Amino acid sequence: MANLEVLVNELPTLIQSLKLTIGDSNQITEQIILINNAQEELRNIKKLIAQELKFDHIKNSAIATLPRIGIASLFIPSVGLVDPAVAEKFGHSETKISLTDLQSKIDSWIEWGYFLQAITADILSDVQLVNQLTSDINHFSLTANFQVIAESLKINLDFSNSNILERQIQKLSNSQNELLELEQKLNYIFNTIKNSHSLLNILLGVSAFYGKSSFVLEWLDDDHELIISSDGKFQELTDILNDCDFLQEQMATLIIQGDTLREQAEQALKKIEQESSKEPIISQQVEIVPFSTQKIVRSALFIASSLLILGFGGWKIKEQSPQLQQISLSLTQEGSAIAKFKSAEKLGMEAASLVQNPPHPLQVWQEAETKWHQAIILLDSIPNETSVSERAKKKLAYYRINYKSISQRVLIEKKALANL
């Protein structure tokens, strides 16, 4: 019994080693050695328990084990408590446990070790999977990436200096492009974890989510839901999906805020350029020079020539009246395009302003969605031949992104109302 008591007191350390950190392949291989050693120790304890149970006088006895807080303090020393997510892994909160129950717990721990070994074998046999996991641990987590981009969008626009404004506009554009790439990655992670039937594919999605933070396979709960930890935080796969939902909302809001800032900066830059292009009126002194006879003759000839040219020009204008009609039509088209462009800009600004400082009721999100849609229709109808067509195409790309984000938010709000 003495040897059994000593081994039972080592259970917290053994149980701690029954987990698998997903990341570097060399690290995974080293952990398998620890898992094998823990399983061997558990088998030894199980054999001793079987021997003790052969004696009738101890069949119903209980062996004192370490108190729950003792196991917990070894598992998470800084907190002193086992996280509720993995509480079942360490057994119940009794200070005593019967040998039969302890034997059953050991069986479950050994089975968990076999499960980790099987996962490890599958991972190490897939070169592409190993390379992807190695790549993920060299990048920041999705949450950390989002925070970096959010900080980069905190810009105090300088409306007095065109050079600084241009740099700020470029910085905003770069940050928004990074945010769009991050949004695509988030959608991939969400869909992979939610819809994949392969555990290895799910682990790839989780790996992309946590990145450099890496993650640990801790345990399976009563419903066989995989419990994962990262940076001391324990989560089920469902919790990770909820985090993805939250990040999607945050990204949608940040995209709109970035677009609003960029719109303000572009308008301010345009205003500065218009003011700088105005030529100052310079007063000049006119020197009166007496006309000579030769100059008067030259002037008379110039006037006569001008009259002849005007007469010929009038005939040519009459002859080319269809061309003038085409020019007039082009001018009308140009004016219409500029008007549409300005109206679209106004709608975009109104839509962006509506959704500032969320949360908002569903009606507000729907109104913003309608304004973005109207702005898109206007920009899309601007002809290529007009002077604003290139700017319209550029804005159209951003407005479509904003419309998509707002539409997703409207769907989320509708779903929330339906659930409520």
What does this structure look like?
The strands form two sheets. The chain has a four-stranded antiparallel β-sheet with strand order 1-4-5-6. By secondary structure, the protein is mainly alpha-helical. It folds into three domains: 2-124, no CATH class; 137-255, no CATH class; 326-347 and 354-420. The chain is elongated, with a radius of gyration of 37 Å. The chain has 14 helices and six strands.
> What is the end-to-end distance?
58 Å
Strand order, sheet with most strands:
1-4-5-6
Give Rg in angstroms: 37 Å
Helix-strand pattern: HHEHEHEHHHHHEEEHHHHH
Bin the helical content.
over 70%
Q: Report the biggest beta sheet as strand number plus sense, adding barrel if it closes.
A: 4 strands, antiparallel
Class from secondary-structure proportions: mainly alpha
Strand content: 5-15%
Low-pLDDT segments, ≥5 res = 58-62, 64-81, 281-321
Rounded average pLDDT: 77
| Tally of alpha and pi helices | 14
Report the principal-axis shape: elongated
Task: Count structural domains.
Answer: 3
